[in-house]
Amino acid sequence: MFTLDATSSTPPYEQIRAYVVEQVDSGQLEPGDRLPTVRAFAEELGVATNTVARAYRELEQGGVIETRGRSGSFVTGDRVQSEAKEAAAAYLARTKSLGLSSAEAVALVRHLHEHPIRS
Fold first, then answer.
1. Which residue range is the domain that position 53 belongs to?
2. For the segment 56-79, what is each residue's pLDDT rounded down to a tens digit?
3. What is the 3-state secondary structure (H, E, C) of 41-64?
4. What are the start-end ranges of the E strands in the chain?
5. Which pLDDT value is given to residue 49?
6. CA 66 distance to own-chain centroid
7. Are residues 65 and 24 located together in one domain of the fold?
8. CB 75 within 8 A of CB 64
9. Where do runs of H (alpha helix) occur along the chain?
């Protein structure tokens, strides 16, 4: 049973988000598992529905869950893919700021894959 830490400096929505991520990472929640409705989870935790809704939005943006309209919110199976896409986007943004084209950035990754830097 999850409870919010009222003494924590971490906002409640972030505590909820972190809890769900922890449950997914530990295997307690698996792809396809349905999360409680926003309203039910908010009532259970004694918080406003907007607090849980924000946590769910952030979980969805992070690829941890997906919302299927009235069917509810479910754990996805593509969290790693989502995080990899975010890392790739950050890499491309950084290499672009350094003046490299997308093709040059991809070629650099290929080169490093074939010839890793040994430290």
1. 12-77
2. 999 998 889 999 988 999 999 766
3. HHHHHCCCHHHHHHHHHHHHHCCC
4. 65-67, 73-75
5. 97
6. 11
7. yes
8. yes
9. 12-26, 38-45, 49-61, 79-97, 102-114
